[in-house]
Amino acid sequence: MLGLENYTVLKTLGSGSFGKVELAEHSITKAKVAIKLISKSSTKDPSTEIKVKREIKILKKFNHPNIIRLYEVSENTKYTILVMEYVSEGEFYSLIERRGRFSEEEARNYFRQIVSAVDYCHSHRITHRDIKPENLLVDKGNILKLCDFGLSNFLRDGEFLKTSCGSPNYASPEVISGEKYCGPQVDVWSMGVVLYAILAGSLPFDESNITNLFNKIKSGRFSIPYNFSDEVSDLLKRMLTPNPILRITCSQIINHPWFTKYSTLPPFIYVSSRNIDHHIIEKCLEYHEFASYSHRQATEFVKNSVQHPIVATYNILLDVERKSKAIEDSRCVVYKSVKKVKKENKIYKDYGKEHNNWVFGFRCNLKARTLMEKLFEALKDAGLEWKIIDNFFIRTRNASDTEQNDRTINAIIKFDVKIYKYEECYVLDFVRKSGELFTVMEVIGKIYMALSCE
Ligand code: ADP
């Protein structure tokens, strides 16, 4: 089909409001992709066309591990064609249906990903406005991907969004009342409903009669099951506060004790660099299809998002690499704090390296006692001293007057180590506070070796 020359369609994945979604193989990289065929006859109506255009505009500029990636857009006489990341495990909604209730630990893992994606949207001044399990797809490794941005709206300073939208059970009181409302808080309410639903296995506001349902939502009264912890109950009450001004914000959620609880992975997200990855450009040029292009030409295409097979190949390869890195997480994770994103540019200038603000971490299968003994031994070996802030938080720096020997790091360094229990193992997180990046990395590398050799 015109517009799909580089893809082989394998099967239909589903059909949506505007057309079919097909599973296909990208013939250059052999990667699996999802192709959304939006029938032009369905978008004749201007409001539908606006929705499709909005989705494309938003997805083109987004790059977040919990938001569906758009690789390429093309069109022929019949369809607008969206080539997207293929998400293999179906809708979150079906997973909830199959599984029923989730434990707080599991729910936290999913919830953090949703908040991370939504916070990212808000930081780009976009509010999703239709957060619900049907709009979250599940990928391998329990990774969630937010999709369906058709109802999203760009936020403008001081301007309240006027369009009412979303699914009634997940819609906030200000939406169903048809009031003018400020965008971001609408998403907070819907995320509260999702969190409740995955913990309770039922909706907080549910009535078969729509008037009763709306009255219930507006009252903000819902019952909290007896087995919910105090912390999650507190978070839910704050998220499901009818008055949007008093409702908890995304950044407050990220700092809420239930969200930051140490018993599982930390509230960090993996954020890939927005800069051009020249290693991926090189990989693209290795395909015979692109043999006649120079590195500079390919870089220009990618930089300017030119509609060209090199750009789609680049986007696909970048994603494949990112996914394989995410799978490597089971041994070694590289992610950084949501809040540190802003600082990146400054440090980038200081050191001329883009990865300077990364937080490093890895998993460890040792028993708690052995882990701590080995950790302290490794720190001592590197000539560091430490302060135990609490059982799971250690602050280290160079020892003030230790004998310097060849195992000791001379440069001044400071970093924090946080330890989280995750399933059957521990995750050690290292946050560099000061000192040259490579020196800190060297020490962390030694600690990693010490903890991984029995
Ligand atoms: P709707 O218009 O109803 O929101 P979509 O057109 O986005 O639905 O998708 C229809 C179905 O196709 C979804 O329910 C989902 O099962 C499947 N699907 C959509 N996008 C993807 C994707 N990127 N990867 C895998 N499956 C997908």
From TrEMBL:
> What is one GO cellular-component annotation here?
cytoplasm
Highest taxon, organism lineage: Eukaryota
Q: Which Gene3D superfamilies match?
A: Kinase associated domain 1, KA1 (3.30.310.80), Transferase(Phosphotransferase) domain 1 (1.10.510.10)
Q: Name one GO molecular function term.
A: ATP binding
SUPFAM superfamilies reported in the protein's UniProt record: KA1-like (SSF103243), Protein kinase-like (PK-like) (SSF56112)
Instruction: Write the record's keywords in alphabetical order, separated by commas.
Output: ATP-binding, Kinase, Nucleotide-binding, Serine/threonine-protein kinase, Transferase
Q: Which EC class is this protein assigned?
A: transferase
Q: What is its EC number?
A: 2.7.11.1
Which positions bind ATP? 36
As its record notes, the protein acts as a catalyst of: L-threonyl-[protein] + ATP = O-phospho-L-threonyl-[protein] + ADP + H(+); L-seryl-[protein] + ATP = O-phospho-L-seryl-[protein] + ADP + H(+)
Q: Which family does it belong to?
A: Belongs to the protein kinase superfamily.
Protein name per the record: non-specific serine/threonine protein kinase
User: Species lineage, top-down?
Assistant: Eukaryota, Sar, Alveolata, Ciliophora, Postciliodesmatophora
